[in-house]
């Protein structure tokens, strides 16, 4: 496809991409600030990364719907990195090196790693993100949580957990925030109804925009007429106010190149590169599953794009970035069609910093929480659980384990736990597949034929060894590899070991079309 055709396509979908970009911007803005706050970095650093992710990475990436920016999953790594390297400028140097490493991973075509994660685990990740969004946004919806808006961890900065925060929230409700939240939620649900979607206005104007504007108006009405309902500043968006482009430049921080001789720098950079790359690959895989057009993201190109993004963010004072599942899913849920929506969100972040900070700081967080509650429900709707259950236990168990592990730990640990369970079921599925077993009764002794399948890997070793160990005494065993295009060395070694010791059980072994291998004698 030519550049001219590409630009035509992006213009043709602008009617859907602009509203989606606006929604993602409204969701991303407090997330960028919250993640920077939680990371112990300057607040402006989160905004810088959101801008770079939207304005630059969106065009370098091959994904049409993913959105990049600072990720909650990296907050602990950023905190530890700042503690290790002691200055923010030294940490920025680590971000730049992490970006270079990601570019290297992309050139080495390491993006294929993302394809090895089972579908049940990816779906579990999406469902878990949906549940976390719901659980984390309820306290903001009630106006009872002063922790940062982008918090996604189970253990919270105030010493509470995700669940204890919920119980606390219902004892400390801010009535004004709750009223705004409920009205916002009703509008969003109604806006998405089939009855209203018949009309062009409801199709092209995002409900989130109406919700945000109305929430500001309601809070101003509270200030004028019902002071007891006013939503305080701790429950409003908090954006640094920059008066001009020159002031914006003064907020930028730059990496300290003198730190290149510090060995600790490379440990932090390597950690950022690996974790950010893995989270990115998992996020784009998940977003591809949500894409109504089922487009596939080229993963190696994605690593290159993220690498360039981290190099750029690190050079001007930003946090490390990944493709972020929360923003990406909000993008899909809002009806985005192309990468134009991610670019628009980045552009709006840039413009908001310079021109709109005073107005955006009037937005109650309960209105944004309502937007994320709707996104969360779409990700973890009950139909998904029913579908996974119908697919059988080998799909449902890794799915549910991934959800629980992410809920009680974090995204990457949860994914690893889910993957381990998924691998267990893969090994179990391979247990009886590597051979055909046939038994014949003869007058002098039982004849057992074991015909190996076309491809016998090390995953099949356990099954074959257990079968050989349980063969009856005094039998004649024929192991035939005629149909096998490949037999793993571990399996060949196990067969030779069996042949060597079979006489102890008076078992006669005959090998057909199976080569000899050298067996090390450890005695």
Automatic annotation (TrEMBL):
<keyword id="KW-0472">Membrane</keyword>
<feature type="transmembrane region" description="Helical">
    <location>
        <begin position="396"/>
        <end position="427"/>
    </location>
</feature>
<feature type="transmembrane region" description="Helical">
    <location>
        <begin position="43"/>
        <end position="61"/>
    </location>
</feature>
<dbReference type="InterPro" id="IPR011547">
    <property type="entry name" value="SLC26A/SulP_dom"/>
</dbReference>
<dbReference type="InterPro" id="IPR036513">
    <property type="entry name" value="STAS_dom_sf"/>
</dbReference>
<dbReference type="GO" id="GO:0055085">
    <property type="term" value="P:transmembrane transport"/>
</dbReference>
<feature type="transmembrane region" description="Helical">
    <location>
        <begin position="20"/>
        <end position="38"/>
    </location>
</feature>
<feature type="transmembrane region" description="Helical">
    <location>
        <begin position="264"/>
        <end position="282"/>
    </location>
</feature>
<protein>
    <submittedName>
        <fullName>SulP family inorganic anion transporter</fullName>
    </submittedName>
</protein>
<feature type="transmembrane region" description="Helical">
    <location>
        <begin position="346"/>
        <end position="375"/>
    </location>
</feature>
<feature type="domain" description="SLC26A/SulP transporter">
    <location>
        <begin position="15"/>
        <end position="386"/>
    </location>
</feature>
<dbReference type="InterPro" id="IPR001902">
    <property type="entry name" value="SLC26A/SulP_fam"/>
</dbReference>
<feature type="transmembrane region" description="Helical">
    <location>
        <begin position="115"/>
        <end position="135"/>
    </location>
</feature>
<keyword id="KW-1133">Transmembrane helix</keyword>
<keyword id="KW-0812">Transmembrane</keyword>
<feature type="transmembrane region" description="Helical">
    <location>
        <begin position="303"/>
        <end position="326"/>
    </location>
</feature>
<feature type="transmembrane region" description="Helical">
    <location>
        <begin position="90"/>
        <end position="108"/>
    </location>
</feature>
<dbReference type="GO" id="GO:0016020">
    <property type="term" value="C:membrane"/>
</dbReference>
<feature type="transmembrane region" description="Helical">
    <location>
        <begin position="166"/>
        <end position="189"/>
    </location>
</feature>
<feature type="transmembrane region" description="Helical">
    <location>
        <begin position="201"/>
        <end position="218"/>
    </location>
</feature>
<dbReference type="Pfam" id="PF00916">
    <property type="entry name" value="Sulfate_transp"/>
</dbReference>
């Amino acid at each position: 496809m030519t550049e001219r055709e590409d630009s035509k396509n992006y213009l043709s979908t602008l009617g859907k991409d602009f509203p989606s970009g606006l929604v993602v911007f409204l969701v991303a803005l407090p997330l960028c600030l919250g993640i920077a706050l939680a990371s112990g970095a300057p607040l402006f650093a989160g905004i810088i990364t959101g801008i770079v992710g939207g304005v630059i990475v969106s065009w370098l990436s091959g994904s049409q719907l993913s959105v990049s920016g600072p990720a909650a999953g990296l907050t602990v790594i950023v905190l530890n990195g700042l503690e290790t390297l002691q200055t923010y400028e030294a940490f920025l140097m680590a971000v730049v090196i992490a970006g270079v490493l990601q570019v290297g991973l992309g050139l080495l075509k390491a993006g294929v790693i993302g394809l090895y994660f089972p579908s049940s685990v990816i779906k579990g990740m999406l469902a878990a993100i949906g549940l976390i969004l719901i659980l984390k946004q309820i306290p903001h919806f009630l106006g009872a949580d002063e922790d940062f808006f982008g918090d996604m961890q189970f253990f919270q900065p105030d010493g509470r957990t995700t669940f204890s925060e919920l119980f606390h929230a219902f004892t400390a409700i801010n009535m004004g925030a709750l009223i705004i939240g409920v009205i916002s939620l009703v509008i969003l649900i109604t806006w998405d109804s089939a009855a209203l979607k018949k009309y062009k206005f409801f199709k092209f104007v995002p409900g989130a925009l109406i919700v945000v504007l109305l929430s500001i108006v309601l809070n101003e009405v509270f200030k004028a007429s019902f002071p007891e309902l006013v939503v305080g500043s701790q429950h409003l968006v908090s954006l640094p106010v920059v008066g001009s482009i020159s002031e914006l430049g003064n907020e930028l921080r730059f990496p300290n190149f003198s730190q290149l001789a510090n060995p600790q720098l490379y440990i932090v950079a390597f950690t950022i590169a690996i974790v950010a790359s893995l989270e990115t690959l998992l996020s784009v895989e998940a977003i591809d599953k949500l894409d109504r057009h089922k487009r596939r993201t080229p993963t190696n190109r994605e690593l290159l794009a993220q690498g360039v993004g981290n190099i750029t963010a690190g050079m001007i004072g930003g946090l490390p970035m990944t493709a972020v599942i929360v923003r990406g899913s909000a993008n899909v849920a809002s009806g985005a069609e192309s990468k134009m929506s991610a670019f628009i969100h980045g552009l709006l972040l840039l413009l908001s910093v310079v021109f709109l900070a005073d107005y955006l700081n009037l937005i109650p967080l309960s209105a944004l929480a309502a937007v994320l509650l709707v996104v969360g429900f779409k990700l973890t709707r009950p139909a998904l659980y029913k579908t996974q259950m119908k697919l059988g236990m080998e799909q449902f168990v890794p799915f549910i384990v991934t959800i629980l592990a992410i809920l009680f730990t974090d995204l990457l640990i949860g994914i690893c736990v889910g993957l381990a369970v998924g691998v267990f079921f893969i090994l179990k599925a391979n247990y009886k597949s590597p051979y055909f077993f046939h038994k014949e009764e003869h007058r002098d002794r039982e004849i057992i034929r074991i015909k190996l399948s076309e491809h016998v890997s090390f995953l099949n070793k356990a099954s074959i060894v257990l079968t050989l160990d349980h063969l009856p005494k005094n039998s004649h065993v024929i192991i035939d590899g005629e149909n096998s295009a490949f037999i793993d060395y571990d399996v060949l070694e196990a067969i030779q070991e069996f042949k060597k010791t079979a006489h102890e059980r008076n078992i006669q072994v005959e090998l057909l079309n199976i080569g000899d291998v050298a067996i090390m004698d450890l005695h």
